[in-house]
Specification:
The structure is a single chain. The chain has 306 residues and is an alpha/beta fold. Helices cover 43% and strands 17% of the residues. Strands 1-2-4-3-5-6-7-8 form an eight-stranded mixed β-sheet, sandwiched between helices. Helix 11 links the parallel strand 7 and strand 8. Helix 2 crosses helix 3 and helix 4 crosses helix 5. The N and C termini lie far apart (54 Å). 50% of the residues are buried. The mean pLDDT is 97.
Length: 306
């Protein structure tokens, strides 16, 4: 089946699509509302549209909500390199500045959560508050992958399979990107999600030329950097405590990144920290049960954390 062009991610809605230049790359974003900036970072295997519910709710609550396609995804640039924690967090910091702000609330899911943690440690001046969804702190994740063999490592077998050259790229796009649908269903904790539209849009977005390879490069860097100087350097830098108030949300039924892997991330936060385990949802709580997710998020955003 033929590849699709970037226009498939330019979904109409109560938001504006535009392009930013940040960290030497071009990033597509969907934006709505006015007020304090909330930057919403998606995960794998999705794109900016995963935050469609929150874009609307945050705008109604008095925030400026912006959801970008991360490097390598959607209608953003897909360079051959730059999928390491240092470069990706610089992308995020650059987007905040390109949006004309000095600081933002950074909200990240899955890989977006990994970037949120990294940005808070490496670029603390741009992070006013931090919200991490379905992603342990990178040092907790590193430890879980190395020590929890029958738990997190087993749950991450797709990560190991993604280390092979070229074969995973073909797997992601083969049969109209059917594997993307299987991942969404397999990681969900609810029978009603993903709905047909969500699965269709995510499968289409993966078929944009370059996206499958770019998405896999995140995982390849994560594993291959573990013993390398760049990975060790990031691990050392991630020991810097997060000094922004932090909300961590995790689905109790998450089979991709286990709740026990995420618990304990508070040891890396030297500010107000809130943990919420959301019952009845899996790896995509902001889409599986957006109402509960948004209640937790807005309550926390409106609280005074000092």
């Amino acid at each position: 089946m033929a590849a699709l062009d970037e226009s498939v991610v330019l979904v109409d809605g109560p938001w504006t699509h535009r392009t930013l230049s940040a960290n030497g790359q071009r990033f597509h974003v969907a934006e709505t509302g006015s007020g304090p900036l909330v930057l919403l970072l998606h995960g794998f295997p999705e794109f900016w549209w995963s935050w469609r519910h929150q874009l609307v709710v945050l705008a109604e609550a008095g925030f400026r909500a912006v959801a970008p396609d991360l490097r390598g995804y959607g209608a953003s640039d897909k360079p051959p390199r730059g999928y390491d924690g240092f470069t990706l967090s610089s992308d995020v910091a650059g987007m905040v500045r390109a949006l004309g702000e000095e600081r933002a609330v950074i909200v990240g899911h899955d890989w977006g959560g990994f970037l949120a943690w990294c940005t808070a440690a490496l670029h603390p001046s741009v992070v006013s508050r931090l919200v991490v969804v379905a992603m342990p702190h990178p040092l907790r994740l590193r430890a879980a992958l190395l020590t929890d063999v029958w738990g997190q490592l087993a749950a991450s077998r797709h990560v190991l399979a993604f280390q092979r050259p070229w074969i995973p790229e073909r797997q992601l796009v083969r049969d109209d990107a059917a594997y993307v649908g299987r991942l969404l269903h397999g990681w969900s904790g609810t029978a009603s999600w993903p709905d047909a539209e969500t699965e269709r849009r995510c499968r289409d977005a993966m078929r944009i030329p370059g996206v499958a390879h770019s998405a896999l490069e995140y995982y390849r860097w994560l594993v291959r950097s573990l013993p390398r100087p760049d990975g060790l350097r990031l691990a050392a830098r991630m020991k810097t405590p997060v000094r922004a108030a932090t909300l961590q949300l995790h689905g109790a039924l998450d089979r991709c990144l286990l709740p026990r892997s995420a618990m304990g991330s508070d040891r890396h936060v030297a500010a107000a920290y809130t943990w919420r385990l959301l019952e009845g949802v899996g790896h995509f709580p902001h889409e599986e049960d957006p109402a509960t997710f948004e209640t937790e998020l807005l309550r926390w955003l409106h609280d005074d954390h000092g």
